[in-house]
Amino acid sequence: MSSNKALRKSKHEAYEKKQEDKGKLVIYLIFGGLIILAIIFMIVTFSNN
Asked: Does the model's pTM come out above 0.90?
């Protein structure tokens, strides 16, 4: 019974790790997109003057 519990715990920890990695990737993509949009906005704004 305890080996089953240990197996479930290890699977759960692996799942949490995978979800954490996916979450970090999403955050990096969002912030990267915002930075790229800010740079594009600056280029467009300064080129209109």
From this structure: no
